[in-house]
Specification:
Blueprint lengths: L5 E6 L3 H10 L2 E7 L3 H18 L4 E5 L9 H5 L3 E3 L2 H11 L7 E6 L1
Parallel strand pairs: 1-5, 2-3, 2-5, 3-4
């Protein structure tokens, strides 16, 4: 929000609720927080489903305790980027969305 984006956040939405939300709104970015290896393991399928539901290109960022410092993790998950903390996530989002007006972002924790 401080960066001038319209945001929507929610804690622990199940995949169906998240997909419905992304399909209903024109998000440019979806941020997912992985708090455990179990959540991380399901993200490739979730990210692919979100991209299909969006019906347009979206930026997917993943962060959280389960991310660690694995540089190749984003590619394996199907995410555009991974962030070690919130400040890095904002910097990555700004970099990837450079030149676009501030838009809607969804940040959801799992």
């Amino acid at each position: 929000r401080r960066a001038g984006w319209a945001t929507q956040s929610g804690a622990a939405l199940d995949e169906d609720a998240l997909v419905t939300l992304v399909a209903a709104r024109a998000f440019d970015l979806v941020g997912l927080s992985a708090g455990s290896q179990r959540v991380l393991a399901g993200l490739p399928r979730t990210i692919a489903t979100l991209r299909r539901a969006a019906g347009r290109p979206i930026l997917v960022l993943v962060g959280g305790p389960a991310v660690g410092d694995d540089a190749d993790l984003g590619r394996r998950l199907g995410a555009d980027a991974v962030a070690g903390d919130a400040a890095q996530a904002v910097a990555l989002a700004e970099h990837h969305l450079a030149g676009q007006p501030p838009a809607h972002a969804a940040a959801l924790e799992g």
